[in-house]
Amino acid sequence: MPRKSSCIKVPKRHGEKALTLANKLGMVNKELEIQRNHDFIYIPTADQLSENDLEALREQVTDSGISTRSFMEKKKKVASFVDLLAEKLPQNLLASLPRAADFIGDIAIVEVPPELEAHGKIIGEAILKANKNMRTVLAKAGPVSGTYRLREVTVIAGEPKTETIHKEYGCQYYVNVAKAYFSPRLSNEHNRVTSLVKEGETIIDMFAGVGPFAIQIAKKHENVKVYAIDVNPYAIEYLEKNVRLNRVEERVFPVLGDAKQTVKERFSGAADRVIMNLPEKATEFVDAASDTLKQIGGTVHFYGFVSSSNTLEDMRLRFEKTVEESGRKVDGVSFSRLVRATAPHEWQAVLDAEIH
Fold first, then answer.
1. What is the CATH architecture of 2-72?
2. Which CATH number applies to 81-161: 1.10.1370.40, 3.90.1150.180, 3.30.497.10, 3.30.300.110?
3. Reported pTM
4. How far is 333 from 312, CA to CA, in rounded Å?
């Protein structure tokens, strides 16, 4: 909102010198934006300026003057939830505060350490205050586990819900974090794999979840077929909704079932590209992934976990050995990297492998 204020008017060639001196003298109104045009800089000043300060400014910058002008207010920096809690929690607990949260749609998910569980509500309220577009804060109540890769969560602030709509790279996804796995930390990976797909490909997404790989690929490519498999019926339910939401019904085909069995029964020799985002168990499905590739071969995006004692190179060697045991061979690994931290000294990693 514009606000009238007195200001220092100075030619642009002396602007930096005038601003440095005005800051040193405490003359600058830091709530207002500095203005510039082709010839002058206008530095908003505090309402009360002392004659001594004005004289000091004129001595150093002889062609400066005092004027009145309308200025835009600076956007106030929103405090982080950690800042908001600085005066609400005992000092000895501040070091234990989580420094980040996962944001899925209008739901924030945070890991509250045991020593802070009694303060969960005020932590959640601080996250809502610092992130105005959030409506719900959930606390992790356990690790990701089970066949469906779910974790227990509890509401600590805001609306009591676990369903939302998440937006990512031009796509929208219905997500229920209590019923189907979804990680916003993989958004760049979804986009990276999408950028590698070529028109005319058939892709098998073996562990599709609610569809972040499959739908983005179909959204960005007009001539592809993506068979998106998941064993979790809730994931498939949301995937089907997301296919309709993003209008990719002619390119994405949800399939409910165990990936290993489904691939062998329906998609043997069908795929140009296979996505294997099940890092905790993907090795168990390498034979199925190899079987689903066309006879001439194709690309596999393989995800696994690595650590300081189990390196990315170790993961590559195990993958190549498992592929050979399935009767295929890795021509080369065109790309590999750590994708995200999953625990202290542990990371999710990816290999892009060409297999014949």
1. 2-Layer Sandwich (3.30)
2. 3.30.300.110
3. 0.78
4. 12
